[in-house]
Design goal:
The chain has about 800 residues and is an alpha/beta fold. The chain has helices spanning about 5-35, 40-55, 70-80, 130-145, 190-200, 220-230, 230-235, 260-275, 285-295, 300-310, 330-340, 340-385, 390-455, 510-515, 515-520, 540-605, 625-645, 685-745, 750-780; strands spanning about 60-65, 95-100, 110-115, 120-125, 150-155, 170-175, 205-210, 240-245, 280, 315-320, 325, 535-540, 670-675, 680-685. The strands form 3 sheets. A 9-stranded mixed β-sheet has the order 4-3-5-2-6-1-7-8-9, with helices on both faces. Helix 2 packs across helix 18. The relative contact order is 0.11.
């Protein structure tokens, strides 16, 4: 599906929905003039309006991930068509930055979102240059001061040239995502990694930008290895929406290998990581952004000068006398833009969006409009046939319908009880997964502490080693690597299970010994030698603090990193489980609806459409969205509670938050001791380990509260969605029966005229139904082989 075809289909669906809406409004106005209640028609109109709103406002997100110096900001600027994102030699992506498309006439703005605040702060508004400068200043400030304002995200509202002619992609957003070597920068490591993983879960297309001069950069390699080793599902889920941009190819010299050879080498490299048939595009982002700005007439003198200096010479031509002539920048800009590779990349990304997320949206919106059109057709058929029945017979059938409707509602309530049971199972499964995480993390930390004890004494033996299990709370799942499955009948299965990896790049004992060997090893000397290898003796408090600080700096990011990986797996599995549960709800409610439809049709001898129970993508919020909402609620509540100086409650909003609150200060236990009239400081590793484990338990305990609320809300919302659909269906027929009985009692003399009016309305409605059918046939011709959500 090309962007032109997508736009045409988008417009056709919108026009068909708008036409149907206008048709229904005319009927409703006619009924209102007759004094009739039009609630059922109002409900149909509301559903159509909701679908049309989604069609116009649907977000399409493209994540861009890169290591430093890969030219990510320049690439984004080239797509945007404005020099709005700044770049520096230091890592400057301190948090997620969304570039949201706005109409070209709207004033661009820079917004900053802060933890615990409902509304964003407007940093500045105006031209791209002003936004760039303010953004750069704010980024530096946050990095230097350690983010005291708890900034969590930036948003730039700016027109994006790449999709400016496609009103169907009005919700297009570029997600500037921190690269893997920016995860470890400053105080933002876990938040940045979390942002990148969230983008991999939720975005419609993912672009990895690689530097032509260093495409085998270790940071990028680490990211790919992490995906292959811990997130293989990303590759299977995102087949067809991951692309690699080999940037800065304009830096190639005559001595360098051909670009095509580099691409083949990169393909082999990526294939070795596990990417099957990786798609790679060469690009010169700087050339692309300058060419765009020149074409638009927005390039500054400095930008034109750069274009002439670096790119114009490539387009020199010879006159009749053999002299080289370099055309004016505006004349060669179109070709330079094409040669930059940017247009090909843009077209590919747009096609990916339209063929997958875009097609899904069009299909779901069309299904919703079709459902509402068929609901209107059922109402008309009911009215037409109702005028053919004897009044006595009609009243009996209406009474029987009431009984059938109540029976259907009772069956729906039974489905609800089953759903509640599934909810409990899900909550138990995820709670056990978190207990498993805590158990594994604590075991791993204990192993690291044990290694210190082992190295501290040559006489160390297993006999004087405390039993690790004594320091751990009893758990049902003690293993470090757990694959979970339920044996409860009819339970929703865990897809792929939960398997937590607790890797350590360098042992803690090695880190401690290299920080200050003399200081760390001083406890091994004869004068300080002690029987207990879990106690470290040093001369000064400063030395004890240094050991504590080293333990803290080792354990804090380690535990945070483990937790981020765990939450990523929980969210992914949770999404799959939730989708299966929705399908089960859909099937059960659909069966109840079909039974009711069959009765009405047979009773009144009228052909009714299937009342399809739908869960369209534009109404289906993912777990990520729910997590964000719950965390924001908890954060605001905690902030407001603190502001009111009320007693602080247990923190429970840490799930997927990605900050350092849960393990920011891993404590150590140091006491001053006196022996043989000599004083020294003693670091008790047992007490230190105990406190670390308490921190892990606090993290898990708070997250369990959040997760329980999220599961409850999602399951409840999903059931209510299906319940509302069948209740609307029941109510719609109830309203139509009531209206029919009223008209039969008061307007029997107008029977012929009423039937004629109803038949005219049906002819008009059939035109819309035929239009929707034609659009559906056309859309199905473009149906992708694999729908990627």
């Amino acid at each position: 599906m090309s962007s032109e075809q997508f736009q045409a289909a988008h417009d056709s669906i919108y026009n068909a929905g708008t036409g149907l809406l206008q048709y229904l409004q005319e009927i409703r106005q006619g009924r209102l003039s007759e004094g009739d209640d039009t609630k059922s028609l109002q409900n149909v109109e509301d559903e159509i309006n909701k679908a049309l709103h989604a069609l116009k406002e649907q977000k399409y997100q493209v994540a861009v991930i890169a290591a430093m110096k890969a030219g990510k900001s320049t690439f984004l600027n080239a797509v945007i068509g404005a020099d709005v994102l700044a770049s520096e030699t230091a890592a400057c992506t301190i948090c997620r930055t969304d570039v949201r498309h706005i109409p070209s006439g709207q004033i661009p703005r820079l917004l900053e979102y802060r933890d615990g605040q409902r509304l964003p702060l407007v940093i500045t508004e105006g031209e791209a240059g002003e936004i760039q400068q303010k953004f750069l200043m704010r980024t530096r400030e946050i990095r230097e001061k350690g983010n005291p304002d708890k900034t969590i995200r930036f948003e730039i509202e700016h027109s994006i040239e790449a999709i400016s002619k496609l009103s169907s992609l009005a919700g297009f957003t570029l997600v500037d995502t921190p690269g893997p070597n920016e995860w470890e920068s400053g105080n933002f490591n876990t938040a940045l990694k979390q942002t990148a993983l969230e983008a991999l879960r939720t975005c419609n297309a993912i672009l990895f930008v690689l530097n032509y001069a260093s495409y085998k950069d270790n940071a990028i390699s680490d990211l790919f290895k992490d995906i292959i080793e811990n997130r293989k599902e990303i590759l299977s889920e995102n087949t067809g929406k991951i692309y690699f941009i080999l940037n800065k190819v304009d830096q190639k010299t005559e001595k360098d290998r051909e670009i095509s050879d580099v691409i083949e080498d990169l393909k082999r490299e990526l294939t070795s990581f596990g990417f099957s048939n990786p798609i790679i595009y060469p690009a010169s982002s700087r050339q692309g952004v300058l060419a765009k700005l020149i074409q638009q007439g927005k390039a500054t003198d400095s930008q034109i000068k750069d274009f002439k200096k670096f790119f114009s010479a490539r387009y020199a031509i010879e006159d009749e006398e053999g002299n080289q002539i370099i055309p004016a920048p505006h004349k060669i800009a179109p070709q330079a833009l094409k040669d930059s590779g940017l247009l090909t990349i843009q077209e590919t990304v747009i096609q990916t969006i339209t063929q997958n997320a875009g097609w899904n949206l069009l299909s779901d919106v069309l299904l919703k409009i079709e459902k509402m059109a068929k609901a209107s057709e059922d109402s008309l058929n009911l009215q037409i046939n109702g005028w053919e029945l004897e009044m006595h017979s009609l009243k009996n059938k209406v009474e029987e319908y009431h009984i059938r409707a109540e029976s259907a509602k009772k069956k729906v309530r039974n489905v609800n009880e089953s759903v509640k049971t599934q909810e409990k199972i899900l909550t138990t499964q995820f709670s056990e997964a978190m207990i498993s995480f805590a158990s594994g993390a604590k075991n791993k930390i204990q192993e690291e502490i044990d290694q210190i004890a082992k190295s501290s004494s040559a006489e160390y033996s297993k006999s004087n080693t405390p039993d690790i299990t004594e320091l751990l709370p009893q758990a049902n799942i003690p293993s470090n690597n757990i694959s979970m499955g339920m044996t409860v009948p009819n339970a929703i299965p865990i897809f792929g299970g939960f398997a937590f990896s607790f890797g350590v790049q360098r042992p803690l004992v090695e880190v401690l010994s290299k920080v200050n060997p003399a200081q760390f090893n001083s406890h091994r000397s004869t004068q300080f030698k002690i029987a207990d290898p879990y106690k470290i003796r040093v001369d000064t408090e400063k030395e004890a603090q240094e050991i504590g600080r080293t333990i803290n700096e080792f354990c804090s990011p380690l535990i945070q990193n483990w937790w981020i990986d765990t939450q990523d797996q929980l969210v992914r599995n949770g999404t799959l489980i939730r989708e299966q549960l929705v399908r089960e709800i859909q099937t059960d409610i659909q069966q109840i609806s079909n039974e009711l439809s069959k009765y009405i049709g047979e009773s009144l001898q009228v052909k009714l459409n299937i009342n399809s129970i739908q869960f369209p993508t534009f109404e289906f919020k993912g777990i990520d969205a729910q997590v964000k909402h719950q965390v924001e609620v908890f954060t605001r509540t905690e902030t407001e509670t603190k502001y009111r100086s009320e007693p602080k409650t247990e923190k429970s909003g840490s799930l997927c938050k990605g900050d350092k609150t849960s393990t920011e200060e891993v404590p150590y236990q140091a006491t001053i001791q006196v022996e043989d009239k000599r004083s020294f400081y003693e670091v008790d590793l047992r007490e230190t380990t105990k406190l670390i484990k308490q921190k892990i338990d606090t993290q898990v305990s708070g997250s369990q509260v959040v997760l329980q609320r999220i599961i409850h809300k999602q399951v409840l919302d999903d059931f209510k969605n299906a319940e509302q659909q069948i209740n609307d269906y029941i109510k719609r027929f109830q309203d139509e029966f009531d209206r029919l009985l009223k008209e039969r009692e008061t307007r029997e003399a107008e029977a012929e005229q009423i039937r004629e009016t109803l038949n005219v309305q049906k002819v008009k409605l059939n035109e819309y139904l035929n239009e929707v059918t034609a659009i559906r046939a056309s859309l199905d011709n473009w149906k992708p082989l694999q729908r990627i959500r």
